[in-house]
Amino acid sequence: MEAPQWQVSEWLNSKRLSLAGLRGRVVALHAFQMLCPGCVSHGVPQAMRIRQAFAADRLVVVGLHSVFEHHEVMTSQALRAFVDEYKLTIPIGVDAPSADGIPKTMRAYGLRGTPSLVIIDQMGRIAEHWFGRPDDMTVGAAIGRLVAPAQFDAGPTNGCDANGCTV
Amino acid sequence: MEAPQWQVSEWLNSKRLSLAGLRGRVVALHAFQMLCPGCVSHGVPQAMRIRQAFAADRLVVVGLHSVFEHHEVMTSQALRAFVDEYKLTIPIGVDAPSADGIPKTMRAYGLRGTPSLVIIDQMGRIAEHWFGRPDDMTVGAAIGRLVAPAQFDAGPTNGCDANGCTV
Amino acid sequence: MEAPQWQVSEWLNSKRLSLAGLRGRVVALHAFQMLCPGCVSHGVPQAMRIRQAFAADRLVVVGLHSVFEHHEVMTSQALRAFVDEYKLTIPIGVDAPSADGIPKTMRAYGLRGTPSLVIIDQMGRIAEHWFGRPDDMTVGAAIGRLVAPAQFDAGPTNGCDANGCTV
Amino acid sequence: MEAPQWQVSEWLNSKRLSLAGLRGRVVALHAFQMLCPGCVSHGVPQAMRIRQAFAADRLVVVGLHSVFEHHEVMTSQALRAFVDEYKLTIPIGVDAPSADGIPKTMRAYGLRGTPSLVIIDQMGRIAEHWFGRPDDMTVGAAIGRLVAPAQFDAGPTNGCDANGCTV
Predict the structure, then answer these.
(1) ipTM of the complex
(2) Which of A72, B108, C150, D118 has the fewest CB atoms within 10 Å, counting from its CB?
(3) B144: helix, coil or strand?
(4) How close does chain B come to C84, measured CA to CA in Å?
């Protein structure tokens, strides 16, 4: 299924982004709300781990602030304070509000809530879509079908330490 | 590179396994020592998460007890007690000892120590090889290039909980 | 040193509380900001663990929302949404704002930032004061000098499990 | 209740210790088995945190290897390898074996299994006794009734970081 266009009222950390402009790269779209506990403890840190695990010219991580509750306090001004405090550097779009309280991109993607993670392939099609806390192994596997991970080496250097034991 | 044959003196939780017999499935070979702290805290739990994330008919997780230190106490009898206490159910091979203290499969694969994780593809070739603590995102990505993950859904059911917030 | 009076503009989850009214009980005063990452990940959960570990008639946990940055978005309305999303049930006072941006109770106590944890004894004197992430063992020890912990038992029931092994 | 004498067949990391010789100091006696998962993941690290949180001239942490299962592989030789791999430096006594498989000190203290943690006060009396996973807050509180914690400061130094936010 082709990923719907993003309807974003404002971008943080980035000029305007579009799916068409990202064609050729995998996109990990992370929908969150700044006051959603599971987003703060799980979703946002996982989005950062995705950012680390793959090369930036192959995969783009995009945040989407999809506010469907407590609209009056999760404003874009509040989001900017959140982004400042949590030192987030990924591009984040403010999902465009609608009359019924469910923002437009959230509606278009049929998201059940936050956090949601949508993986969009190099041709702009939805490859995977999770709500809640998918584990890193599963998320990595789904992205890995589309793009190779960056190099990684984390072994101990000598003898035994918390990482392991060397010969 | 073709994965070397396994040289195993004894199997736990399984009859004898060979790479040839597993052709057509991906193999995650997890080399560990029962008294290696990084294996107990990181490697073994990660092997269990791999086991969970992929279907058993597509991917096999195999433990390899590659003892290169404290040989006198990390015997196969001690390993059986460890497997009992930790309730491990994956097949585990005892890496065949050699005169120089480095077991034979460990030597053949050129492992630097424990934990080591080797991913072998459906044709029996080494696809990836890590020493120490590769993160789940990276391991998942490497395996995901070879095989799709199992289904996963972990969203909250109503309102906000530790997993997230529903519409 | 006698603990300064609290200067609070508004109470959540409680009618007005005063130190004088809590005389005879130990008070754990937890100063935080809703957008401070260390407060959300460490301070607030630790305050909840203090709440669990001691009997409510012996020890009172009181939150203090001491906003010294991003005042425009960490309003009491926003705090109410935060309290709702994180399902916090302890009494929380909004530290009274002042002209220089440092709220009045924070100033009176000389807090260096958030999270801060102040332990006040049964006679209203400051017994301990930490800024940042004191570990649970240390916090427990400081409170334990003043009041006994509640009963606790967490052993496994049979054989070995993640908690331990029974005879 | 007065704490029973220790019946220990061998000491690691220490010359022979006795309760009488430790009079005047608090003793945290940590009974464990090297192959008990809850001991390795919870009990031993908690014993190390107790060691850190209190001054050594006020509180002594003593390990007790109380083997009641898999005796044939949890030998004192195996324990030495475990102590080496996990880099444990606290004194550890090997609980003296008995004919029925329950070691003598374990029997004398009525321990239900491992891990168990017994707090003995400055006069040699049992002050507290837990089986399984008591939380750090509770353990700290029980010890804190007997002895003050060491100094601790863990605040951030500037701006916001993972520890908190400074003024």
Answers:
(1) 0.89
(2) A72
(3) helix
(4) 9
C45–chain A Cβ distance below 8 A for any pair: no
C-alpha dihedral, C49 to C53 to C55 to C59, nearest 10°: -60
Alpha-carbon distance of C77 to C91, in angstroms, equals 16
Average pLDDT, chain A: 94
Both tokens assigned to D5: 């004498």
Q: What is the pLDDT of residues B63-116, one digit of tens each?
A: 999 999 999 999 999 999 999 999 999 999 999 999 999 999 999 999 999 999
Q: Is the pLDDT confidence value at C48 over 80?
A: yes
Q: What is the pTM of this model?
A: 0.91
Q: Cβ of D162: how many Cβ atoms within 10 Å?
A: 13
For residue D121, what are its two tokens? 């006060």
Residues of D in contact with C102 (CB under 8 A): 167
Count contacts between A and D (CB, < 8 Å). 6
Q: For helices B136-144 and A136-144, give the axis angle rounded to 10 degrees.
A: 40
- Give the model confidence (pLDDT) of C75-101 as tens digits: 999 999 999 999 999 999 999 999 999
Q: Is the pLDDT of residue D155 over 80?
A: no
Q: Do B40 and D40 touch (CB under 8 A)?
A: yes
Interface test with D, best of A40, A160, A163, A165 (most D CBs within 10 A): A160
Among the listed residues D136, B79, B87, D46, the one whose alpha carbon sits nearest the alpha carbon of residue C162: B87
Which residues in chain C belong to E strands, given as ranges?
8-12, 26-32, 59-65, 92-95, 113-114, 116-120, 126-131, 160-161, 164-166
- Establish how many alpha carbons lie within 13 A of residue B101's alpha carbon, considering only the half-sphere containing its beta carbon: 7
- For D53, the closest of C69, C141, C155 (CB atoms) is C141
* Tens of pLDDT, residues B29-47: 999 999 999 999 999 999 9
* Structure token digits, residue C42: 């460490």
Q: Would you say C143 and C30 are in contact if contact means Cβ atoms under 8 Å apart?
A: no
Query: Which chain A residues are closer than 8 Å to C37 by Cβ?
Result: 85-86
Q: Which residues, 6+ apart, have CB-to-CB distance to B147 below 8 Å?
A: A141, B26, B54, B55, B58, B59
- Average pLDDT, stretch D87-92? 97
Residue type, B2: E
Taking Cα atoms as reference points, which of C49, C58, C66 lies closest to residue C6?
Answer: C66
CB contact under 8 A, C140 and D138: yes
CA D87 to chain B, closest CA, distance in angstroms equals 10
C162 interfaces chain B, CB cutoff of 8 Å: no
Cβ of residue A76 closer than 8 Å to a chain C Cβ: no
Per-residue pLDDT reduced to its tens digit, A23-48: 999 999 999 999 999 999 999 999 99
* A37 neighbors B160 (Cβ within 8 angstroms): yes
